[in-house]
């Protein structure tokens, strides 16, 4: 067996990226994703593609934000690991999988091959997530009418609310940010993401109880793939009333009123309350996502 050759692609040879089978249906999942040819890389062995990765970012990002398409042929885990290790960008890895993939032997084997390659490259599991997609035939969730919603132009109000929300959180990305830099970093990362989204800043909303107390925030958003539930969060002192559902219902209505014909969403699989709220609001699970982050060996 000859040594593998890692090749960065360009517009002229981007077709090589399509030379590997797609058992996990990544191509269908990325119908709306725009990849830059020069952010795609493949591994060739004897002229055949045995691993591939597509790094992704927004249209104005100077560097990729993550890897969201990563495939490895069976038995080529080390080639896949070297593809990750040798890349000029060490960013989070997202592996998208069909819902219920663990129950299908072929899908599970394909997924485990990718996981093994990621771990061999020094990547560490961060979280498993459910991904949702609402469509009009599901019907709009009922608005409970318990909260008052208003726009808020001052980012410091959102920053303070996000610090309070993340002071008690189940979100793995927020917990990692808190471990690295405290609540300020967790809140700032959320704000940075909201500003990065191409949707209007005026969409962000604060929610208040009938008595005027802060209940939480919801962020209707568009990412480059379309309308999405950007963020739902209830401050700790207002939890136990089911307000997360109120926020999700309002966010859904808001996006539909802005013309959304579908709405995506996601939550960590361990966040059982939020998963239940998505189900109640008519958001079915359409796929799953495994997030890995670069560990010490990949840094």
From TrEMBL:
Gene3D superfamilies: 3.40.630.30
InterPro entries recorded: Acyl_CoA_acyltransferase, GNAT_dom
Signal peptide range: none
N-acetyltransferase domain sequence ranges: 163-299
Name the UniProt record assigns to this protein: GNAT family N-acetyltransferase
Source species: Streptomyces incanus
Lineage per the UniProt record: Bacteria, Bacillati, Actinomycetota, Actinomycetes, Kitasatosporales
């Amino acid at each position: 067996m000859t040594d593998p050759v890692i090749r960065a692609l360009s517009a002229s040879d981007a077709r090589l990226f399509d030379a590997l089978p797609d058992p996990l249906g990544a191509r269908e999942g990325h119908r709306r994703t725009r990849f830059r040819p020069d952010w795609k890389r493949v591994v060739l062995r004897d002229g055949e593609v045995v691993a591939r990765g597509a790094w992704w970012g927004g249209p104005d990002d100077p560097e990729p934000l993550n890897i969201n398409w990563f495939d490895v042929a069976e038995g080529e885990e080390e080639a896949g690991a070297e593809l990750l290790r040798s890349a000029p960008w060490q960013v989070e890895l997202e592996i998208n999988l069909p819902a219920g993939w663990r129950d299908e032997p072929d899908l599970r084997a394909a997924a485990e091959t990718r996981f093994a390659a990621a771990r061999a490259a020094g990547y560490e599991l961060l979280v498993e997530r459910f991904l949702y997609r609402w469509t009009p035939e599901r019907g709009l969730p009922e608005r409970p009418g318990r909260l008052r919603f208003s726009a808020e132009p001052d980012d410091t109000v959102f920053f303070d609310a996000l610090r309070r929300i993340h002071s008690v959180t189940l979100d793995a990305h927020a917990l990692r940010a808190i471990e690295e830099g405290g609540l300020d970093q967790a809140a700032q990362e959320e704000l940075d993401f909201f500003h990065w989204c191409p949707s209007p800043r005026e969409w962000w909303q604060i929610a208040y109880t009938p008595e005027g107390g802060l209940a939480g925030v919801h962020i209707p958003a568009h990412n480059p793939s379309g309308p999405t539930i950007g963020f739902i969060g209830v401050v700790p002192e207002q939890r136990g009333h089911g307000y997360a559902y109120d926020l999700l219902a309002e966010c859904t209505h808001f996006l539909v009123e802005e013309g959304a014909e579908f709405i995506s969403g996601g939550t960590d699989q361990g966040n059982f309350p939020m998963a239940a709220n998505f189900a109640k609001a008519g958001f079915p699970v359409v796929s799953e996502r495994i997030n890995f982050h670069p560990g010490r060996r990949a840094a």
